[in-house]
Amino acid sequence: MSRGRRLTETDRLSIAKERAQGVAAADLAQRYGVSLKTIYNAVNHALDRQNANGSRPIVIGLRVSRRELAAFDAALARHGITNRTDALRHLVLAADEILEPDHALTEALSARAADISRIGNNINQVARRLNEARLKGQPLSYTAESHGHIREFAGLILDLTDRLQALLLKRRADLALKVTKAWAPLIPDRLRRG
Fold first, then answer.
1. What is the rounded CA–CA span in Å between residue 171 and residue 102?
2. pTM assigned to the model
3. pLDDT tier for residue 97 given thresholds of 50, 70 and 90
4. Distance of CA 33 to CAs 1, 5, 14, 38, Å?
5. Where are the domains of the chain?
6. What tens digit of pLDDT does each residue of 24-67 get?
7. CA 98 to chain centre
């Protein structure tokens, strides 16, 4: 075969497939009787064709346990979705929205961190005075003010726990809505209405 040989569409697709599998361009050029440039052009042509027709040439792998897969399948079943691949593709497409940081949660934690630090410093002062008195053999002076600092800290922790729980529940509900929105095109009409 001469170096001027024209490749068929089938040849171009075969070359692109073999290159993707790691076959050397020089080996392909020799086998098809064409130049290296023709091999690279064939690969680019196949990629352009895939992009033009919206094909999905990239495959990603994911290893999960049987339990994880069963839980995922159960979630899909609750939504009436039967195709795992489509469900995963829609989650990938919605990743930017689903994985968006929760700014409200971040702000709430930042605001409370300063309170915890301030009251924690007061409790450290109380503990230091008590330890110093104990080491010097002096009577421990646990004042009403000391008790007030500890009560304030305990109250802050309880309040923070309640607020965090509420924020986390809201975050979970927001994520569930985002996932449902991502899967909406896959959910059968009968389940979407109900």
1. 7
2. 0.49
3. confident
4. 6, 7, 14, 10
5. 9-52, 96-193
6. 999 999 999 999 999 999 888 887 777 666 667 677 888 999 99
7. 8
